[in-house]
Write a structure and sequence with these properties.
Shape of chain A: elongated
CATH topology of the largest domain in chain A: Rossmann fold
Number of helices of chain A: 10
Distance between the termini of chain A: 50 Å
Structural class of chain A: alpha/beta
Order of helices and strands of chain A: EHEHEHEHEHEHEHEHEEEHEH
Largest sheet of chain A: 7 strands, mixed
Largest interface: A-B, 17 and 21 residues
Number of domains of chain A: 2
Helix content of chain A: 25-40%
Radius of gyration of chain A: 19 Å
Oligomer: homotrimer
Strand order of the largest sheet of chain A: 7-6-5-8-9-11-10
Chain lengths: 294, 294, 294
């Protein structure tokens, strides 16, 4: 009989996420080992337990999920997980702290239903947070031109630098979006506006995006009003507002969940995967048949 | 294939109860997620993970169990659980911190095997503890007259006030039971004496309850001697002592366990249940065919 | 339908061992309850939850595993586990903190493939650590003469005293091994040299053991170089070096894992087992057909 599939949930919060646990179980994981309050220094022993218990032939039936609400703390855990493993004793790993990878992937793939990304200019607002930066990386990979908006031009530049690998020199443009006027400028001429702002921070007044020329799709990833793009409702799903096709966080939620589950299942196909932003995006892309519908 | 049933065990103790875990698994729960040392402020995120991961059609296959040895701390957790949920995104919840609900229900239903509760006067001793107060509420609901005994008449009055919802004005009587003489008075004329005293506290000397007139059933819920009703043994099960039918904690244990398991199973029938004292009592009632045997 | 088998993992480390968890699941345990950071004072309630939830007929389907990287702290937990249980409400318990029992058993049984232990003199180096002391106990039980080596003769004497139960007076000899010369003396005339030294501590220079007369088998239990017996590689498995058959930690790892899994399975056959050093050794012995191959 096959050995059970085991997912080891390493979470930087005091309690390992219920959300991630339920999704994992619904994806068909046989046995879930939950670890909360995981410190970077504790990762090595936990990962060794995954590496040294099953023979190489069964290592693909063990995997690690790194999560938690603090994306930056979780990224530290991921680094330690990757650093601990060596060939051929690897197990696959997925990173989705705060849902950042699956949310960004769902947003970009939703946009791709309406726009041909290789011909799209996208403005990502609050692009320096974990979801925003991941959306930027995915858009670049998909061939879009991306305006990277932040109140701090320095942080926008830093995101552009990190996202520039594999991008051509015209794909990334840092934009200061500290005032409505600057934001209007950043949006003007974009076909896609995507906000990854923190809860309760409005980054675009309604008058700004509805008066901008060329905007065809607007996506706001905040699940709780007030949202970042004023006028969008979290449950918007293909909602036409002022001729713009709008989506809210709940509106992209079904796709996000589908991607999350598919990524978990992919973990158990081989023992060498590291599913971070780009890989999660590719898994999402394989799920949607996404011809531009314009 | 059906999604697995998932029970989320929220426990206020440092380690989530093994007892509650084993009962849940024996009740057929597919996957148990254990959380110990849960603080009220952490409940929201954990419950959101239960609410937002499965579609409405599958929400009845996720449920929450609130437990722990500190009943009052666990009640705080329960409040936060209930406050977090909203229609229609609910999952069912069971409360049984320190076994208080299932123990009280087993005790009252055991009494009902021998007495017609609508015609019974019951004296509950140490009625201001969590098990005692729950037994009072269940007895009132079953139509009994209840004398609510406590060393502190103020606390007895408070319990009566909280239990009075749905009760008629003659059903509840607070009694001071600070001395053997007062206790004798509280018992005199009752058909049922039920003690929910803390471990090692004797609330009724043997001479008091054996000389009281009218007592037909005596139940003591302390599993470790000395028990609250002197002369009862924890393993008493329908034991006749001085013409009184006696039960100890272990004697009502099998029924308690049966109620606990049935309640867990009930959780997964619909997504809107809150199983606290009254609801657990009703589940117990549906399990026993309890004609009065007097 | 049979109740699920439940293993309760009590671990003194902050996070319950992933290693022990995976082995348990691969051994077929249906449901694993993991408890990390367990304090001795918390054991009682956890064990009561195992004792009082299933009827006697099903108690053999619940068991406890005591582990953690700090063997001495875990031994305290084990003491509390054993002290809590009473007849007939027992569940079986296995102790393998830091893999000490399964590692020692695998080492001694590996030696027994090449040597007739009743006719063997064995020198155990670093014999006062948890693995070393367990190997001494197992060798004594198997009828070998054992030289118990330690830098501290007092600690060596203490180990001999603890291991002397059931031994005859000529079986145990404490040896000071503080210098290469003393170590050479301790090894001289032994057929088996077994090192259980801590990571990075070389206890035998290569020139010492290769020039000693009579040594036929050398086993080093450190998985990370430098190892205790200089010249042995952790992956040595039946490797002949200077006419001596050598094994490293990884070389005995497959047998260690086999013993660990078999011991877990044995836990669920009856409810009264305490699987510590000697019992784990016996389980290992039943697994190997170990005729001396000299």
């Amino acid at each position: 009989m096959d050995k059970p599939t085991i997912l080891i949930q390493l979470d930087c919060d005091a309690h390992a996420s219920v959300f991630d646990a339920v999704v994992a179980l619904d994806a068909g994981v046989d046995q879930l080992l939950q670890y909360g309050a995981v410190e970077p220094m504790e990762v090595r022993d936990l990962v060794h337990g995954a590496m040294f218990t099953r023979g190489h032939a069964d290592l693909h039936r063990t995997a690690i999920f790194v999560g938690g609400s603090d994306v930056s703390a979780a990224e530290h855990l991921l680094k330690h997980v990757i650093r601990t493993m060596f060939d051929p004793m690897r197990v696959s790993v997925m990173f989705d702290a705060n849902g950042a990878n699956t949310t960004a992937a769902a947003a970009v793939l939703t946009a791709a239903r309406h726009l041909k990304l290789t011909e799209t200019t996208a403005t990502v607002l609050a692009a320096t947070g974990p979801v925003g930066e991941r959306a930027v990386r995915m858009l670049v990979r998909a061939g879009a031109k991306v305006r990277v908006g932040s109140r701090s031009i320095e942080r926008a530049v830093a995101v552009c630098e990190r996202a520039s690998q594999g991008a051509n020199e015209h794909q990334l443009l840092p934009c200061s979006t500290g005032t409505p006027r600057e934001t209007a400028q950043a949006i003007e001429g974009s076909q896609l506006v995507l906000s990854a702002a923190a809860a309760g921070v409005e980054v675009v007044p309604e008058s700004v995006w509805t008066s901008a020329r060329g905007v065809r799709v607007a996506i706001d990833l905040n699940a709780v009003p007030p949202v970042g793009i004023a006028g969008i409702d979290p449950s918007d799903h293909r909602q036409i507002r002022n001729k713009v096709t709008c989506y809210g966080a709940i509106g992209v939620g079904a796709l996000k969940m589908k991607i999350h589950k598919a990524a978990i299942q992919r973990l158990f196909e081989t023992n060498t995967l590291v599913l971070d932003a780009e890989e999660v995006y590719e898994i999402g892309r394989s799920l949607v048949s996404a011809p531009a519908t314009n």
